[in-house]
């Protein structure tokens, strides 16, 4: 949110800037970095080689995986190698004779450990710069880093100062080579130090920062925006020139949608025809046609958030009328479990679905329960993926209950796919400016048939994060031409929203995950979402 409103941004690494562009679109700014203490320290003297990690002992930093990989390596290799850890233990450190937890240490002790380590390991996939990794490199210590972080991988690739691993096998192989080849470690150590001292000295960073500030456009001018002339303005004249890809935009180029993640070998027209031929028994045909016409792209964006792994166990909440279900059935190798809520007394049911294009008739079994106030009828840690799509906006009283149940039935590391209408979509912005109402009308399907509470991206990010979910992907996208009757022109609102293009799509799409430690957190019902609740 702040990023899209800034005239210029300072990035710590090129990988961080690429991620920002993926999340928010092209934004002005410079890669500056940070100064790293590169003064060489006297290495700590130890009899045995050791692998060093400094930082929070936390699942989000990859520490559970590190413990698993190290213990497996020790079981499979005869080596005196020890794992030495410093920092705060947010999770228990395994009771293992070759794992040594030092707790908090002084800066000088940390640098001495870095200088004396056989290698420094960084298992975190969520690094934006990784000061400690660069500090270790500055002490001539080779590093072993996860490929899950583009930042870490780029540091190693650009410097030659270490090795990258993807899984246990590559971890063990790379670590084995580091232990066995002293001359290679020495070359990597020198290369890593040269990389840090050539890029991250105080003087170099100070100069880069000065250049970034001096190149920042004044508030009344923006180098990336083509300003409208005094006569006959158009919406496109108000937008960054690099953002005029008509295939990814609508509404006068004011909102940005990512490319549609079509399955391999399929075109949009062919896939639309397939999904348009799907009918659940006894469904009103005209209503289903209109539904597919309006929301086809939403189904495809949703499919794109479901990992392509075979053998997954997947729960789709609110599966009826089975358009997303059909995409999962066709394009994901998964054991599908379905749930609905029809306000009936039966706890289970079956519905027949026909794919008229192929002639297939599929009978889907489902369980029925109210996700707001009932325990889900599944055991703990059962699903690899849960789809919670176009539901949270319909809930009447307690979305956190549903999120906690989803968290409970997901396996550690499991994926939540959540989609919902974006309350600050462009159509609503136009209505608010025009003094029009944005609230959903009453529904013939009852209180659960209407949208009782819509969300922004920030709402969802906060609600999920405080209840233990780690956000991997979140974006907005348009899925249909829109239907606002607002008299407010796009040209009128363009200056107000030009820095928010990636925030204006009709729907929010979110993929998040949950780890074992987060599954134990107590529920949090934030004050901005709940009021007058019993203690």
Instruction: Specify the helix fraction band.
Output: 25-40%
Residue windows where pLDDT falls under 50 for at least 5 positions: 220-251
- Strand percentage, roughly? 15-25%
Shape estimate? globular
Number of domains: 3
The spatial strand order of the largest sheet comes to 11-14-15-13-12-16-17-19-18
Number of helices in the DSSP assignment = 16
What features would you describe in this structure?
This protein is of the alpha/beta class. It folds into 3 domains: 2-34 and 204-215, no CATH class; 50-200, Rossmann fold, CATH 3.40.50.2000; 259-516, Rossmann fold (3-Layer(aba) Sandwich), CATH 3.40.50. It is 33% helix and 19% strand. It has 16 helices and 19 strands. It has helices at 2-5, 14-24, 63-76, 107-116, 131-138, 150-159, 168-180, 182-199, 202-215, 268-276, 285-304, 323-331, 399-409, 426-433, 457-466, 490-497; strands spanning 9-11, 29-31, 50-54, 82-86, 99-101, 119-122, 143-146, 162-165, 249-250, 255-256, 278-280, 312-317, 334-340, 348-355, 360-368, 383-389, 410-421, 470-477, 507-514. The strands form 4 sheets. A 9-stranded mixed sheet has the order 11-14-15-13-12-16-17-19-18, sandwiched between helices. A 6-stranded parallel sheet has the order 5-4-3-6-7-8, sandwiched between helices. A two-stranded parallel ribbon has the order 1-2. Helix 6 (150-159) crosses helix 8 (182-199). The chain is globular, with a radius of gyration of 27 Å. The model is unreliable at 220-251 (pLDDT under 50).
What key phrases describe this protein's structure?
33% helix; alpha/beta; Rossmann fold; 16 helices; 535 residues; nine-stranded mixed β-sheet; 3 domains
């Amino acid at each position: 949110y702040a990023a899209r409103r800034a005239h210029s941004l300072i990035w710590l690494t090129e990988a961080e800037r690429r991620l920002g562009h993926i999340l928010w679109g092209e934004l002005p700014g410079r890669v500056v970095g940070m100064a790293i203490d590169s003064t060489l320290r006297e290495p700590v003297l130890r009899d045995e080689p050791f692998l060093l990690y400094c930082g929070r002992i936390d699942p989000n930093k990859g520490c559970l995986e590190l413990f698993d990989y190290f213990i497996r390596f020790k079981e499979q290799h005869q080596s005196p190698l020890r794992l030495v850890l410093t920092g705060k233990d947010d999770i228990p450190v395994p009771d293992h004779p070759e794992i040594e937890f030092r707790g908090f240490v002084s800066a000088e002790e940390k640098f001495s450990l870095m200088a004396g380590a056989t290698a420094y390991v960084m298992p975190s996939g969520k690094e934006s710069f990784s000061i400690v990794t660069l500090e270790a490199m500055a002490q001539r210590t080779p590093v072993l880093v996860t490929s899950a972080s583009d930042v870490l991988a780029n540091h190693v690739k650009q410097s030659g100062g270490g090795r990258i691993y993807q899984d246990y096998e590559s971890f063990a192989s790379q670590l084995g080579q580091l232990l066995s080849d002293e001359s290679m470690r020495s070359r990597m150590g020198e290369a890593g130090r040269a990389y840090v001292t050539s890029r991250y000295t105080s003087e170099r960073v100070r100069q880069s920062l000065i250049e970034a500030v001096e190149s920042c456009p004044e508030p009344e001018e923006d180098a990336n925006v083509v300003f409208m002339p005094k006569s006959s303005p158009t919406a496109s004249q108000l937008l960054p020139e690099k953002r005029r890809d008509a295939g990814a935009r609508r509404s006068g180029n004011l909102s940005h949608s990512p490319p549609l993640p079509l399955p391999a070998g399929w075109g949009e027209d062919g896939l639309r025809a397939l999904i348009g031929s799907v009918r659940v028994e006894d469904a009103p045909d005209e209503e289903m046609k209109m539904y597919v016409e309006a929301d086809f792209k939403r189904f495809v964006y949703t499919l794109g958030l479901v990992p392509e792994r075979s053998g997954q166990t997947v729960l789709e909440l609110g599966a009826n009328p089975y358009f997303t279900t059909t995409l999962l059935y066709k394009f994901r190798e998964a054991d599908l479990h379905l749930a609905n809520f029809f306000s009936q007394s039966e706890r289970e049911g079956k519905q027949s679905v026909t794919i008229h294009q192929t002639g297939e008739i599929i009978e889907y079994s489902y369980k029925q329960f109210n996700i707001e106030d009932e325990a889900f009828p599944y055991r703990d840690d059962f699903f690899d993926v849960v789809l919670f799509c176009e539901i949270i906006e319909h809930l009447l009283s307690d979305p956190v209950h549903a999120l906690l149940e989803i968290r409970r039935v997901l396996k550690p590391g499991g994926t939540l796919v959540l989609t919902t209408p974006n309350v600050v979509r462009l159509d609503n912005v136009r209505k608010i400016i025009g003094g029009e109402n944005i609230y959903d009308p009453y529904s013939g399907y009852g209180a659960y048939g209407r949208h009782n509470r819509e969300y922004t991206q920030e709402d969802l990010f906060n609600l999920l994060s405080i209840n233990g979910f780690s956000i991997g992907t979140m974006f907005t996208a348009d899925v249909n031409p829109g239907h606002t009757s607002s008299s407010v022109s796009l040209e009128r609102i363009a200056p107000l929203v030009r820095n928010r293009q990636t925030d204006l799509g009709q729907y929010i799409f979110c993929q998040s995950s949950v780890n074992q430690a987060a599954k134990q957190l107590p529920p949090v019902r934030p004050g901005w979402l709940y009021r007058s609740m019993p203690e």
